[in-house]
# Entry
Amino acid sequence: MKLKNQFNDRSRAIARWLACGAVGAVSIASTLSIATSVQAQEKVLRVAMTAADIPINIGQPDQGFEGFRFMGYMLYDTLVLWDLSKADAPAGLTPGLAESWSIDPKNNKRWIFKLRKGVKFHDGSDFTADDVVWNFAKVRDQKAPQYEPKQAALVAVRIPALKEVNKIDDYTVEIITNDVSAYVPYQVSFWFMSSQEQWEKTKSWAEFAKAPSGTGPWKYLTSTPRAKVEMVPNKSYWNPKRVPKVDKVILRPIPEASARVAALLSGQVDFVEAPPPDAVPRLKSSGMQIVTNAYPHNWAIKPSRIKGSPWNDLRVRKAANLCIDRKGMNKLLGGLSVPSEGHVPPGDTWFGKPSFKLSYDPDAARKLMAEAGHSKEKPLTVKIAISTSGSGQMQPLPMFEFIQANLNECFFKTEGEIMEWNALLALGRKPANDKISTSKGVNAIVISHALQDPYSGFERFFLSSRISPAGSNWGMLVDPWYDKTLAEAAQTFDAGELATKLAKVHERVVDNAEWIWVVHDVNPRALAPHVKGFVQAKSWFQDLTSITIEK
# Structure
């Protein structure tokens, strides 16, 4: 494998809104040991994340959706939350810091959010409309003293419709949008509320990070960079059903999959994200629980469409899609995936009837490549940026090696730019023509994506106005048809009509082979036998508050 190592069914809810050697185990035991007599008495949940570092803790987290899962929704709340209480239905929206929301019948660009009364931040201050307005300025008003550039960059792609946030009274705010958008409730579900009063004590986000304050079900205790973060229950959480049942949670960044498994088998952690498929039999035979569930996930190669990109030729994009053995990939993954048939999973109400089938047909792929002027003697060089680990990235390096071998059989010369997860995300927040990509020769990237709502699934990728950093259109794709149709979809408030429009969008996306799709994840996790009460939601996000430790 030629690599340059730079750094070592949601659709229904729309209607509502490894085996490791002794050396590895000893190493993990020596670096992760936290056993003390005090902790033996406490009920402590220890989680191994795939991230390489602790996510930012001041409001908007980094580290992708793993940061949202293990920092954002634990310390903080949003106006609208995700219902993560069920394993048998797609996670839909549910009231959070806002008890209700509605659109102004006289002005479709004006939304009214009624806020929940009696909510307190971890520092004891009351949550009111002033905090909502203050938190909007935190990420939008560059002249505001609380403006924080990194948080602004991290949330910009999530709340593009929001133009203004104004206070009506202490428990009511209005949100004014740039254009008519039916997606506002989804967008505000990614915007976290930090404590204004806590920040005002020092007027410093660096100081705030030492004692962050949100309204979430967990309260920050302490952290050590690249080692751990500890949280304790918020006993005064506004939703009594979600007051955590354990005494403490310890989150550890362990990006190496085999190291996470070693930590679980040696008793250093209780809960592991993304165990490698070849470790699953060993984990099961050791009594560990393996939990999976479908969720709105997409693992695909996103090609550059800038001038001179090798991916501008439709024949090349189709050839790449026909050259990937998705069933073989699923076998590599131990069956822990769903082979892609398009951008969204097969059976989704947004799937439609695309004519281009993502079959494994290397002969047809080579024929297309030959038509495009490529051959075994004259292969097409492509360079794909991919991470070593990360939220939703599954087993990125073995998967890349598999894809590389596939593509190289079809007149491609496939190279990789291997990056740490956060570095890859930073690359993805700049467009394909930015020097962060061009200086490395990168012309495609693999960043797993969430598809849980219309904006996340389509608009941010295929609108010309959503070219990074304004969205996730890294490849800089421009197609007036998408611009027109997706704009119409965003103004459609009827779920049935919206599904019809999005199915048409999906048909065009697949028929144009806009991406090279591979698989959808099934979200595997490994839990120690004494971990009880965890509900694996059909979501990128999970709720740890229901977990108990029973030894």
